[in-house]
Structure formats: C-alpha cells, structure tokens
Specification:
Length: 105
C-alpha cells in the first residue's frame, strides 16, 4: 500500500455493510456480509476522485488484515479482491477452503 494510506483508519460501517477508508472526503469501500465464522466480500469501489490513487488497494489490504485479526474466514466473491489474493497468495490462508473457487487462487 502506498505510504499516504498507511495511517488512514479502516472503518467497519455496519449500517452501510461496508469496510471503508475516507481520503479527503472521498471513499474507497468494500461491501460485505458477515456470519459467525465468515466475512463475504462482495464489491470493491472507490469514488471517481480516488481513481488511480491506490485507495482501492489500500482498502482491500486493510480489510484483509481486519479479517485475519478477527479469526474469521474470507469468501472473496468480489472480483477485485479475488484478483488481489491471486496476485498475493500469502492471503490465501484466510480464504475459507469451502470457497467454490479456492483452487483457482
């Protein structure tokens, strides 16, 4: 993650069901659903003002750390998150082995 995002806190916005970071009044976020043992990541998005800044990568990395620390398993249905994990296989360890595309990571 780019250094400018390191000190920006990840917010678990439970009312909107998304993990988010705010950068100069703009948001990068991941929609999620949660069970007792899993966090399902559905869709990653960044406001147009953040396009190309690395904010989407930052919110993904911060969310993966949150999931790891929560001791829950990840279901990466979001194509952006799935592609990120495929590029960074060290994160596969938090993916639930029951995930239908686990072997493609």
């Amino acid at each position: 993650m780019k250094p400018e995002f390191e000190n920006i806190p990840l917010v678990k916005n439970e009312s909107k069901k998304r993990f988010e970071i705010e950068v100069n009044g703009h948001f990068a976020f991941i929609d999620y659903r949660e069970t007792d043992s899993q966090i399902i990541l559905i869709h990653t998005e960044a406001d147009p003002e953040l396009a190309g800044t690395g904010a989407a990568v930052a919110v993904v990395e911060k969310t993966l750390v949150y999931i790891k620390e929560s001791l829950k398993k990840l279901l990466p249905f979001c194509p952006y998150v799935f592609a990120y994990i495929k590029k960074h296989p060290e994160w596969k360890r938090i993916v639930d082995v029951t995930f239908e595309r686990y072997d493609q990571l």
